[in-house]
Amino acid sequence: MNLKKCKGMLGFGALRLCAVISVLILGVIIFDIAFKGAGVISWEFLTDYPREGMTKGGIFPAIVGTVFVTFITALFSIPLGVCAAIYLSEYTREGKVVRLIRAAIRNLAGVPSIVYGLFGVVLFMRGLGFGASVLSSGLTLGLLTLPWIITTSEEALKAVPKSFREGAMALGATKWQTIRTNVLPYAFPGILTGAILGLSRAAGETAPLLFTGVAFYIPKLPTSPFDQFMALPYHLYILSTQHHATELVKPIAYGTALVLLAVVLAMNLLAIILRYRARKKLKM
Amino acid sequence: MMLSRLKEKAIHFLFFLTAFSAVVILAGIFLMLVLNAIRAFEDVGFWDFFGTRWNPSAYGEPSYGIVQMIVSTFMTTLGAMLIAVPLGVGAAAYIAEVASPRVREILKPAIEILAGIPSVVIGFLGIVLVGPLIADVFGLSSGLNALNGSILLAVMALPTIISVSEDAIRAVPTEYKEASYALGASRWTTLVRVTIPAAFQGIAASVVLGVGRAVGETMTVLMATGNATAMPHGFLDSVRTLTATIAIELGEVPYGTAHYYALFAVGAVLFIITLGINLVAEMITAKHRRLTG
Question: How do beta strands B63-64 and B54-55 pair?
Answer without folding.
Answer: antiparallel
